[in-house]
Amino acid sequence: MAATDSTMGVVRAGLLALGQLGDPRLRGPLFKSLGLTLLAFAGLWAGLGWLITHTRFFETGWLDLGAGALGGIAAVLLSVVLFPSVVAAFLGLFLEDVARAVEARHYPGLPPPKPRPVIAEIGSALRLLALAVTINLVVLPLYLVPGLNLLVFLATNGFLLAREYVTMSAARRVDSRVLGRLWRERRGQAWFAGAAFAALSTIPIVNLAAPVVAVATTTHLIEAWRKAIQEGPE
User: Fold this and answer.
1) Do 206 and 2 touch, CB atoms closer than 8 A?
2) Angle at the Cα of 189 (from 142 to 153), degrees rounded to 5?
3) Closest by alpha carbon to 165, among 4, 5, 13, 35?
4) To 10 degrees, the CA torsion angle through 100, 102, 108, 111?
5) 3-state secondary structure string across 154-175
6) Cα separation of 66 and 154, whole Å?
7) Residues 157, 196: contact at Cβ < 8 Å?
8) For the chain, how big is the Rg over CA atoms in Å?
9) Integer CA distances (angstroms), 204 to 123, 148, 191, 217, in order
């Protein structure tokens, strides 16, 4: 029953987030994060392309050609698996705009959130990028196994997205002690939500709105969790 309630809580929050996609206040953060993401991937592809073209891995031409081809495949694969985390990292810079739009519509009685310095947002973005690259490089061979690759992608990126979105969103409203409690008590629900965000990121066109939906959904979840803590044990 508890697992079902947790799942339904994520579904309800997601539906509320989807229902607000027409809000013009959400378009700016979405376009900005996507623009930065495209620039980041363009830089990645350009850098890897230059490295592959100007590096001789072997003395034999056909081996170098094969290594270059594998490098190109790896670059494309990494771009796909890192997409949700990279967008999440950049969207963190504009999370406040999305969260405020959600709160203005659904929770107008809330007091102003705690301010977060820009340097803290940049630090969170860099930590997420570093963690996403490291973890996805470690599990990269598993992405080549049909059937298993999707499960690994959802589990890995679901955790990364859940941790980042919950941390960033909750930090606006709660102190570190309560944040730790929220994560311990709700990490299963958060992980499920993160896996759903990662799944959305694999659907063409839909993935363009997935980051904003993720932040809006997490904002609803944080408010539900804070209310549950204030009211005591369920």
Assistant:
1) no
2) 15
3) 13
4) -40
5) HHHHHHHHHHHHHHHHHCCCCC
6) 30
7) no
8) 19
9) 29, 21, 22, 20
Q: How far is Cα 178 from Cα 196, in angstroms, rounded to an integer?
A: 25
Using the 8-state DSSP alphabet, how is residue 172 labeled?
A: T
Token pair listed for 86: 């990279």
Query: Angle 138-209-176 (CA atoms, 0-180°, nearest 5)?
Result: 60
**pLDDT, tens only, 65-110:** 555 566 666 666 666 777 777 777 676 677 888 999 999 999 998 8
Give the per-residue pLDDT at 1: 43
Residue 201 CB contacts under 8 Å (≥ 6 apart), including other chains: 83, 84, 87, 157, 207, 210
Direct distance between the N- and C-terminal alpha carbons of the chain, in angstroms, rounded to an integer: 13
Q: Is the entire prediction scored with pTM above 0.85?
A: no
Residue from 122, 106, 84 nearest 209 by CA = 84
Give Cα 234 to chain centroid, integer Å.
29
Please tell me the distance from the alpha carbon of residue 132 to that of residue 151, in angstroms, as a whole number: 16
pLDDT at 212 over 80: yes
